[in-house]
């Protein structure tokens, strides 16, 4: 694969450029607001679980819709400018979401999430290959782990800020709205609750614009990955090889289990009888566990074990925690779900480099296909909320999570070590 690297990007050692680049291109914590937002829209728009779970459905569906167009944009304008453009699109979606929620228009709010997801899709199409190519391939998982640490820092703070600033009395609002006999009084209660989200989202939009400017003006190198203008047989063979095709399936399942642990945990905990005042913080707890997992992976890979072995151990841990969550009840079961963040942390940093390894000139398209597989985050939570009234929330959770971890484990063992 022909990659143009400036001299400052060493392929022989873990350089300052690798660390700085991984940190600067880390994605913001936008996706991790979906967990508390599910509870927020349930109260604000009086929705059931299926209606509220359109939040992650629309958000992650955008990855499927916009991955290939984003790949074309990234090839045209380059990876670095693609990063800056992605942040600007995310800012527009964030502002639209805040405006529509304050205006009490749920369909418009979902449209804002779709735009935000489009920006994140462009970000993923550019950031993952950028960080993977920023240095030697055996350290790719380590670089993506640094990016993940920065991401999860924002991801922990964002839902905490939303819970404290916007949802601090969500239980009381829900009770007062249910108790109000006059529809006008009920609407006034909910309208005031929804308006509280406006300025936090406008502030996040402004931060994203500032980050776009920082990326555009930074000395980060531009890494060029040329794509064949006319696909030939060799190019097609790289795209159709089993490593990538199976990796797409594994990525679909991985994002599904990650979203279940981060976004569905609030609904899971309410099934255990925990009140809204407690469940609003659980997404941040999952992300804190992911942060610990990233830090552990950063120290261990590749110093103590390979990224492939780390992924296998993570899948085994996910299987064990899923079984414990199924076998226990109450706070202990919810804690096992939150700890899935720890087991999930080092799957993605290893899975993405394994899947695109050897893609050569087809790397941008391979990256786009993997990002399309992020739509697993749209499908798996919808299956969960639609099946849990029939089968019960604990059995459905285990039924979705356990086979997914096992499938990713098989991929890592039989494909990742080739």
Automatic annotation (TrEMBL):
Location of the protein in the cell: Cell inner membrane
- One function term, GO molecular function aspect: galactose transmembrane transporter activity
What family does the entry list? Belongs to the major facilitator superfamily. FHS transporter (TC 2.A.1.7) family.
**Which keywords has UniProt assigned to this entry?**
Cell membrane, Membrane, Transmembrane, Transmembrane helix
**One BP annotation, GO:** D-glucose transmembrane transport
| Designated name of the protein | Glucose/galactose MFS transporter
Q: What is this protein's function?
A: Intake of glucose and galactose.
Respond yes or no to whether keyword Glycosyltransferase is given for this record.
no
| A GO CC annotation given for this chain | plasma membrane
Record-annotated membrane-spanning stretches: 50-69, 81-98, 104-123, 144-167, 198-220, 244-269, 281-301, 332-352, 364-385, 391-412
Per the record, membrane topology reads: Multi-pass membrane protein
